[in-house]
Amino acid sequence: MKNNIKWYRIADNQMKYEKFKLFVYHLSNGYTILPFQFTANISNICNRKCKFCPNWGDELQPSHYLTWMKKQPDLMDFNKFEDMLKRMGILRKFIRQFSMTGRGDPGLHPDLLKMCETLNNYKIPYSITSNGDFFDDAFFHELAKFDDYCKWVRVSLFNVEKAKYWLAMQEKHKVNIAFINETGYHLEGYEDGYVTANNKGNEKYATMPLNFVEESYCRAPFSFYSINTDGSIVPCITCFEIGNAFEEPFWKILNSKKARWIRKQALKMEVPKDYADCRNCGYFMSLPKYRAMNKYKKIGKGNHETV
């Protein structure tokens, strides 16, 4: 009985804290000084063409998103990346994590290890998310030389037959290797990944119901930014540009007029659909919620086949 009262009080305090934060966000007029996560799309090229991917979906139609994405270079320029971090100065201390990923695969970036070394030298926690196709023993051996701030290398597992291979790699190397199961099958011992229909054309490959988001507000743009290969900065996973970190100081972008506008729209869940599909956003998906919705099958054909 005492434990039940304890957890009830914890939940009640969390709810009050959440209401207080929301109150502060509404008073802020869109300004923020919060620590943030940086998701870096360092590569727009990939060796795979997964049907559920918004960039390769077989039912995609011309859209604002595709037009915007195609104007970006295939790879992020290392010198511009390095210069951006140097110019950020004290704001580097505000980066909770620098997540290297991409609309393509970061493993195809020839300067990936140099980027990791730069982040390590600046003492910025970082992670890599990849299909793992180009990560071998030699790669992990080199990464281990400057992995003090490497939180993990997260492998999106697409092939059931490679599950044992990656378990062996996990045992062999010092670097923390994590997995996301994207095979379309349920695999014991692996965390199931999920696909949301954030972009038109991949709805039938989503592993959760459409329009599952019930929240009436979103605070992600206050502490979550993505940088694209051309240096453009967008809040969370929208395609609404609030500035370019390769061309202007990041402190100016952080609370620019555009940044404040998109935050205020997110607090009302009124981000235009041309920029983001908030009702199908994975930001709102917790693991317990996903497990209750999970469509993965223990047997039978998966729904994540590549072309």
- Report the helical percentage: 25-40%
Q: Which structural class do the helices and strands define? A: alpha/beta
Reported for the largest beta sheet, the result is: 8 strands, mixed
Number of DSSP-assigned strands: 8
Write the layout of secondary structure elements.
Layout: H1 2-27, E1 36-43, H2 64-70, H3 78-88, E2 95-102, H4 112-121, E3 126-130, H5 137-143, E4 150-157, H6 163-172, E5 177-181, E6 224-227, E7 232-235, E8 243-244, H7 250-254, H8 257-266, H9 287-293
Parallel strand pairs: 1-2, 1-6, 2-3, 3-4, 4-5
Antiparallel strand pairs: 6-7, 7-8
Structural overview:
The chain has 9 helices and 8 strands. It has helices at 2-27, 64-70, 78-88, 112-121, 137-143, 163-172, 250-254, 257-266, 287-293, and strands spanning 36-43, 95-102, 126-130, 150-157, 177-181, 224-227, 232-235, 243-244. The chain has an 8-stranded mixed sheet. The chain has 307 residues and is of the alpha/beta class.
Summarize the structure.
The chain has 307 residues and is of the alpha/beta class. The protein is built from 9 helices and 8 strands. Strand 4 (150-157), helix 6 (163-172) and strand 5 (177-181) form a beta-alpha-beta unit.
Q: Top keywords for this entry?
A:
307 residues; alpha/beta; globular; disordered C terminus
